[in-house]
Amino acid sequence: YHADEETLLDVVKKINDHYHSVAIFGHNPGLTEFVNALTGSMIDNIPTCGIVGCEFKITSWKDAAMGQAALLFFDFPKSKAD
Prior knowledge:
Strand content: 5-15%
Radius of gyration: 13 Å
Helix content: 10-25%
Order of helices and strands: HHEE
Shape: globular
Distance between the termini: 33 Å
Low-confidence stretches: none
Number of helices: 2
Largest sheet: 2 strands, antiparallel
Mean pLDDT: 94
Strand order of the largest sheet: 1-2
């Protein structure tokens, strides 16, 4: 529940290379810190039901590292409020 960014990176590094896309669900502050560390972004907070897309240019999950991912998108329900 309180996983930090290094713990989450360890999980990513253990993903089977058979999978090209994965979804990770988590809680803050660890999830926001993880995304920021992976992508170099400055997201203040990934809110409840927020979604982030990242892309690595790697051939194996074990090669994932902080600062290597590109942020593709960040969205959340209240961003669409009128």
